[in-house]
Amino acid sequence: MYQRIRDLREDRDLTQTQMAEYLNCSQRIYSNYERGDVDIPTRILIKLADFHNTSTDYLLNRTKQKKPYPAG
Prior knowledge:
Residues 5-59 form the HTH cro/C1-type domain. The chain is an all-alpha fold. Helices cover 57% and strands 0% of the residues. The protein has one domain (2-59): 434 Repressor (Amino-terminal Domain), CATH 1.10.260.40. α2 crosses α3.
């Protein structure tokens, strides 16, 4: 899961600091998320999925389908 979050950030040429600002957390906390040192809170996981236009299942490695689910 953590590698996917990092890869998505890097694909958009964003720094950890920029992502941390979007998520309203410190760069250090965001770095901990990417390294897997701390569990990502649900609200942050949803925000990441929305930002990267994907599903939380993709971020959690539960699917290889990057496309988000259709709104229901």
